[in-house]
């Protein structure tokens, strides 16, 4: 009898536990349903017009105050420019790329020589490929398009000026009625992956591929090892903006003509790579062979000895790198 009573008690206990669990589940489901119902109610609640107007009227705030950065010393660079002499040059063939080196304290120019042509520029620390041009930070510190006085900044953790723009024959362009400007740090670079995704075509003369081949040749490494070092570019001479209605990135025919150039001062030892974009002046298409393309010229200039007596190459960023650890 004792065993039968124990069994009955045990079964009753299990039934009680089961009832408790079921009750707990119903409570939790009710909470979830209530939460969903509340969130749906809030989401579907019509926001008063006055409130939406207030939300939209918030004043824009510049993300980075750059007053603390060293001013562009135009007189220093102009004095050095007056005594500089060309020491080398590199021709970049159409729909291809080429590398060049620029010692710190030298100038380099990208020149239009035969016809309107856009170029995609990559820059690296000549002694360390892991330090390279950071287009996003350059955009945040300066603007969507750059010109004389602006700097090209390196990636983290170095974050220092790699080059300073010292002359730009297209500075007159400013902003046109479409909101477009020249020399943008918005776009990335035409590449074969996006081209294949959109067109289903293998095309090997996109700027990404051109830069990859050029870096591989320059460094004596395989394209597979070179490709990860290729990065977002400065779109030299490219005329771009955002559509006012859809806010889509657009391009239009570049105003560059033979004889125009943009000039840079190398703040550190630089390895550069320039691609003559397959889009030519980027007024119709890119990533194909249908557009007229022209070569670009890179010229390297050395200032006279003593012309930069008051200049120093910038050190890497001073942050301690601890990240709170």
Structure, described:
With 325 residues, the protein is α+β, with helices and mostly antiparallel strands. The chain is 28% helix and 25% strand. Strands 2, 4, 5, 8, 9, 10 and 12 form a seven-stranded antiparallel β-sheet that branches. Strands 1-13-3-11-7-6 form a six-stranded antiparallel β-sheet. Strand 9 and strand 10 form a beta hairpin. The longest helix has 43 residues, at 2-44. The N and C termini lie far apart (67 Å). The mean pLDDT is 91.
What topology does this entry show?
Blueprint: H1 2-44, H2 49-56, H3 74-82, E1 85-92, E2 97-102, E3 107-112, E4 119-125, E5 128-132, H4 135-141, E6 151-153, E7 161-168, E8 181-184, H5 192-199, H6 207-219, H7 223-226, E9 234-242, E10 249-252, E11 261-266, E12 270-276, E13 296-302
Antiparallel strand pairs: 1-13, 2-12, 3-11, 3-13, 4-5, 4-9, 4-12, 6-7, 7-11, 8-9, 9-10
